[in-house]
Fold this sequence. Notes:
The structure holds 3 protein chains of 3 kinds. Chain A is α/β, with parallel strands linked by helices.
Amino acid sequence: MQLRVTGWRCHNIRGNLREIDIDLSLTPPRWTLVQMNNGGGKTTTMSLIRAALTGQKLDAETVKGLRPEDGESMGSFELRILIDGRLHVITMYFDYGSGGHSFSTARASEADGGLLDTHALPSEVRSLITPQFAELFVFDGELARKIRSHSSDRASSAIRTLYGIDRLETLRSTIERLLDEQQSRVAAVTQARDKRHVERLNNALQAARQKLKGLEDKRALIVGDCDHAKAERDRINKEIGDRIGQNEEAASELDALEENLRKADLVILGETNELRTSLQSPFLSCPRALGRLQGLSAQLQALQLPEAATAEFFQELADGEFCVCDEKITPPIREKILTKAATFMAADESGVINSMKTLVRTTDEDPARLQQPVDTLVGRIRERHRIKQKLDAKRATYIAAGGEELTALKEQADKHEREIGRLEEQLERLDSTDTTYQLNHGLGWEQNIPKCKAHVAECDERYNTATDTHKLLLQSRIAQKVLNNIETEALSLLREKVRTATNVKLAQLVPAERLEVVRIGSALELSSRNLARKDNVSEGQSLSIAYAFLASLFESANHRLPFIIDSPAVPLDAEMRREVIKVVPELFEQTIMFVISTERQDFAEAFYGRPDARFITLVRGPDGTAEQRDGEDAFKTFQDEDDAPAQNVGEAA
Amino acid sequence: MPVPSELLDATDAVLEATNQPDEFKSRLRALIRNAAEGGVEDRDVAGLVAAIDIDSDTGA
Amino acid sequence: MTLRRPKDMRTYFKDIQGRADGGARFETDFDQFYLCLMVGLDDGRLAPESELEPAEFNKGYTAPYKPFAPVIAGMLVEAEMRRQGIPTTKDAIQREIRNLIEVGNGGTQLKEEGTKLLSRYAARGFELIREEIPKPRTLEDFLVAYYQRWKPAEDGAEQPASDADETTAALPAS
C-alpha cells in the first residue's frame, strides 16, 4: 500500500492555525519543509494528522484544548491523502462547547463518490495504522525514547505489524474458532473434550461389542441345545412308538386315532381356507361396512353425486368455441366454466364412486351367513382337540402299561419337551423384535440381540464423533504450534535484518561511538564500544538511533508510507545533523518536516536548490492567524521573534 | 501485499523440521501466502488442520 | 406411494406362518394387513406413523382383493368423514373424495394421501387385534377369534357415528 499526504487544512484551531490551507498537489514533492514559529502549532498539527489517519477518539478535554483563544465555538481539521493513488479526504469537526468531535470521509473515486459521516478509510489502512503504528511515521521525539523502553514493546510490535506477521495471529484464532464450533456441534451427541472421556466412550463401545458377542454365542448354544433336545425327544418318541407298536392292539388303536387326527386336520385345513377366502370380502370381514356404505350411497344419491357432468365435460366445453346452448364462449365465460369445472369430480373419481355404489347395491354377502361355517369350524377344532387328547391319553395308557421302562422314556421325552419349551422361550427373548414383547419382558440391550446391535451402533457413533473431535483438538494444537514456531522464526529473521540495517546506519550517524543495537527484543538494546550495554544515551544519539531503526524498518517493508517529523534536528549537533540529513530523508518517498528556524542550519539548508523540495513558511499573524509564504526565499529569511541565538543548541559554532 | 521473504523462509525452516505430510506443508505455504494477500477462507484453515497427522512429531 | 406394515404384525402371526405340520396359513403378509385394515377402518381412528414399519410393502392390493378396490375406497371415504366430522354437504363430500381418490395409482385407486391413511388404519386395527386376541398358534384359531370379536356390536344397533376429531390411538404400553 502506498500512502501520500497531499495537504491539510486547519480552521479555528488554537495556536496559529486559524486558517491554514496547505496544498501539496496530487503529486506531492518528495520533501516538504514547513517552517513555523516555535509554539506555532507543530505539535498540534502532528497530533491532528495522527488522529485523522487513525480515526481515534479524542476526549473532551483534548478537543476543548484545541479551541482558539478568542472562543470560537466550532473548528475543523481536514487531511487529504492518496491511498494507492486514490484521494481520500478526512475531516474532523470539533464542537468546543461540548468537547465532542466527529469525522467525515470523502472518497473521490468511489462509485458512491459521496460523503460518509464516519472515519471510513479502507480496512487495510485501518488495520495497519493503529495509534501505536502511526507514531512510527508521524514521528516526534517521544518515540525515540519509547523504542528503547522494554515496557512499551514498540520495537517488536512495529516489526510484527509492518511485516504482516500479525496475520498469523488471525490464522491461529481461526483455528481456535473452528475447533470451538466443532466441539459445540458434537456436544449434543457427546461431551468429549478430554482424553479420559474419549476412553470411557471407547470402553463402552468395547463392552457393547463384547456383550453382543456374548449374546450371539449364547444364542448359538441355545440353538444347539434345542436341536439336541428336539432330536432326543423325537428319538425317544420314536422308540416309545416302536415299543408300543410292538403291541398290535395298541398299534392299531393308535394308528386309527392318528388317522382320525389327520383327517380332522385336513378338514380343518379346507374349512379354514374357505373362511379365509370368504373374509377377503370387506362386507364379510367388516360386518358394519355394508350398512355404512349403504348410508354413504344414500347420501350421495340424495346429493345427486357423482354428478352426471364431470370435470372433463366442462374442460372440453371450455376448449370449444361454442357452448352447448350455441352461445359463443368468450374469454370471461371460458374463465367461469373452468372455475366451475374444478368443483366437479373427474370422470375417474366418479367412476370409482359409481363402482362402489354398484358393488354395495348388488352385493348379497351377509356376515351372518358366515356364522354357520364358523360354528362348524369351531366344532371341528374341538373335535380335533378331543381326538388329540384321546390319542395322548391312549398313548399314556400304553406307556404306563409298558412298564417302568416305557414310563421312564416318556418322562425323558417330556423332560426334553419342557426343555425345548424353556429354550425356545430363551431364544424368543434373545431374538424378538416385537417392541411390546421386549417391554413386557424387560428386555434391554444386554438381553436382546436386535437391541444390542442397535446399542453397539450407537456407541460406535458416539465414540467416533468424540474421537473425531479429540483428533481435531490434537490437530489444532499441532497447527497452533507450527504457526507459533513460524512466527517466532520469522520475527527472529526480521529482527536480525532490521538490527543489521540499523547498525549500518548507526555507524554512519554516530561514527565515533560505534553504537550498536545488540538486540531487538521488546526494546532496542544497545551497546557501545566501551560498554557491553549502553542504557544512557544523549538525546541526539537517541534520535539518531530512532531514525536508523525506522529507516531500516521501513526500507524493505511493502508499505510505502510518508515520513512526517516534528523538529527532526533540534537536539542534534552539527555533525549529526549532517549525517542525519544524508541518511534519513533518502529513505522515504515523501517526507514532511516541521521545522523551526534554528533547524535551518546544517539541516534544512541541505535541501536548498533541490528540485523536489518545497518550502512553506507560516508566519504568525494577529488573532491567531498565520500568513503562508511559499518558496525558498521566504523560508531562508524567516525570523522567529523568539529566536535567541544563545538558547539554541544547534547553532553552528 | 506480498509476503515478506523472511516469513517464507521461516515457514520453510519450520516445516523442514517436522514430519508432517506433504499435503500439510503445501497447504500451509499457500495459506501463509493467502493470509498476507488478505484472502483466507474458513475451509482453507479447516483443510489445513485436517491434513495434520497426529502420530507424526508434535510440530517441533 | 406404497403401503406399509404395522410394526410387530409379522411377529404376531409368526407361529401361524411358521407352521410345519401342513396346517392352514395366510397366503401373504397382505392378508394379515387386510384384516387389520378392516378392524381399523371400522374403529375409525388412526395409529401414528411411528407404528408403521419403515420398509415399503405392497404397491397395491394382491389379486383376490383387487375387485374390492372401490369398496375399500368407499370405506376410507366413509371412515374419514366419520373421523373428521365432515358434514354431508355436497361440497364437503366432493372435496373429500377428490382428496382421497385417484384412479390408476397402482390399483388402490387412491391418492398418495389415501394410501398413507390405509396403512395407519391398518396399524390401528392391529393394535386392537393384539389387545383382543392372544398371539395365535393356528390360523383357524385366529379366524374364529377374528369373526367372534365383531359379535357384541353386531347384535344391537349400529354404533353411533363417532364425531371425534382426529385422535391418534394411544399405544397399549408406554
